[in-house]
Design goal:
36% helix, Spore Coat Polysaccharide Biosynthesis Protein SpsA, Chain A, 11 helices, 12 strands, single chain, alpha+beta
Length: 277
């Protein structure tokens, strides 16, 4: 995504959504990720950020000056007011990741804030397009609690699994209309993938993941991936499940490449302008 990401983080690239008045509106991917967590029932969110923390913090902090500046053109304020209302109901904690040492390291940085509570994890450079935001995250948390699982992933079938964290497992049954796997193994970007099921960056965790990441990192210093922590839990006998994406209901959208961003723009615009939600 260079050179655009020199001055603008991928997480702050805009995508479309259906606004409060029913028209297409724009918001950063990170906004849509936070909205999904909020709709899933989260009212405490830890945001792990690296560089450009000021820009991200400024966006997620209600700013009365914006409202005053456009007070004579209230039609401009509808989406901003909705954003401010959502932010007022969320308690944010900010954690700085000083060096980009991997997604797993970013997660581990949040351990002191998250504590021993079960939690949801959502990357901020991708989103799940679904009929109602937050539905899948709620379902993942419910399955985690029902099955007393350490991890619930959300996976999708891909043509090029070498690029992803790949899971293998056996059928676990159905839950709220979705099939899920009992995961037996997980590999990060395998040379010879054993399945086509690739992990998205949506997770429901118990606090066991923090201990697994710490233990794995002590044995393998360097960049730390979430996949490594999950694999470590599997090797220790923990229950890991993977809900399978139903393409008729959901579509995973990433802004990690120019082509992916173009597809995400098209798909979100299509949904935002559809005659029915």
């Amino acid at each position: 995504m260079l050179p655009v990401t020199i001055g603008l983080r991928k997480e702050m690239l805009p995508l479309f959504y259906r606004g409060e008045n029913g028209d297409a509106a724009l918001a950063p991917v990170a906004h849509l990720a936070v909205h999904s967590l909020y709709k899933a029932g989260a009212n405490e969110i830890t945001m792990v950020v690296g560089r450009d923390v000021e820009a991200v913090l400024r966006y997620f902090t209600p700013d009365a000056a914006v409202l005053r500046r456009h007070a004579n053109q209230t039609e401009r304020l509808v989406e901003t007011i909705a954003l401010h209302e959502m932010l007022s109901r969320i308690r944010f904690t900010w954690v700085i990741q000083n060096k980009p040492l991997g997604f797993g390291h970013a997660l581990l940085s949040a351990a002191p804030t998250v504590g021993h509570e079960p939690f949801l994890l959502h990357a901020a450079d991708a989103m799940l397009l679904e009929k109602e935001q937050g539905t899948v995250l709620r379902m993942m948390a419910a399955l985690r609690d029902k099955e007393n699982a350490s991890v619930v992933l959300f996976v999708r079938s891909v043509d090029n699994p070498k690029r992803y964290g790949v899971v293998t497992g056996v059928p676990g049954g159905k839950f709220e209309g979705h099939s899920y796997l009992k995961v037996k193994a997980m590999e990060e970007k395998p040379e010879h993938p054993k399945s086509s099921w690739a992990a998205t960056a949506l997770y429901a965790f118990g606090d066991e993941i923090f201990g697994a990441l710490k233990e794995f990192h002590s044995m393998h210093p360097g960049e730390l991936e979430v996949t490594s922590g999950i694999s470590h839990l599997i090797s220790r006998g923990h229950k890991v499940l993977a809900i399978q994406c139903n393409p008729a209901r959901e579509k995973w959208l990433s802004v990690g490449s120019p082509e992916g961003y173009f597809r995400a723009l098209n798909k979100t615009y299509e949904k935002a302008t559809r005659s029915s939600p």
